[in-house]
Amino acid sequence: MKYTYYGQSCFLLEAEGKKFLFDPFISPNTLAKNIDISSIEADYILVSHGHGDHVADLVTIAKQTNALVIAMPEVTHWAETQGVTNLHPMNYGPHKFEFGKLRMVWAAHSSSMPDGSYGGNPAGFVLETGGKTIYFAGDTSLTLEMKLLADLYNLDYAVLPIGGNYTMDVDDALISTKYFECNKVIGVHYNTFPVIEIDTKEAIAKFERENKLLLLPAIGETIEL
């Protein structure tokens, strides 16, 4: 499995010949100015919630790729009003797809669309594909619901927000790994704006002191999972 980071909470997972793009926010992000969204390929686009820093490029990329957009019904409805036609609305719960299994899980946050319309509930995802199980928390604070994941899965990696203010910070993310029992973390949702800037070296060191791994790939970098 390959992981490519596009900044903020946007990343691409590649497994079993399928490409999964999460929370497409690239073109408005000055830190991702070298990413050409017209070159991005996707079979599926998974959207955790409706905020602009998670859906800014959703319509453009969905139309250029014809990827299946998977999100809360309110988000898929908004995308449909923008001319997106390949949609799969979900809510909290599991569903089997051709690539494997996907579960939408609780996230403690808020959600509205860029036009101010209701965005439904925020969510995270647990993706089972390519022999691996990946948890993407979406935008969330630390929540006890994360403990349920340890009963349901043996997670290989967790993709967690670490910037604080709007979501968990590094310390909260570290606590969350004990809830769902996963020691390999990829950090997202940090450094895009001043209020979520962090000391990345300190963050990595905090995880190391607990014998856990925090990966912080550069924007545009691809790593093997």
UniProtKB/TrEMBL annotation:
Residues forming the Metallo-beta-lactamase domain are 7-189
Concerning PANTHER family, the annotation shows: UPF0173 METAL-DEPENDENT HYDROLASE MJ1163, UPF0173 METAL-DEPENDENT HYDROLASE MJ1163-RELATED
Membrane-spanning segments? none
Keyword presence, Hydrolase: yes
* Top-level taxonomic group: Bacteria
Q: Which GO terms describe its molecular function?
A: hydrolase activity
The name this protein goes by in its record = UPF0173 metal-dependent hydrolase SAMN04488522_10791
Q: Which Pfam families match?
A: Lactamase_B_3
Family that this chain belongs to? Belongs to the UPF0173 family.
Origin organism lineage: Bacteria, Pseudomonadati, Bacteroidota, Sphingobacteriia, Sphingobacteriales
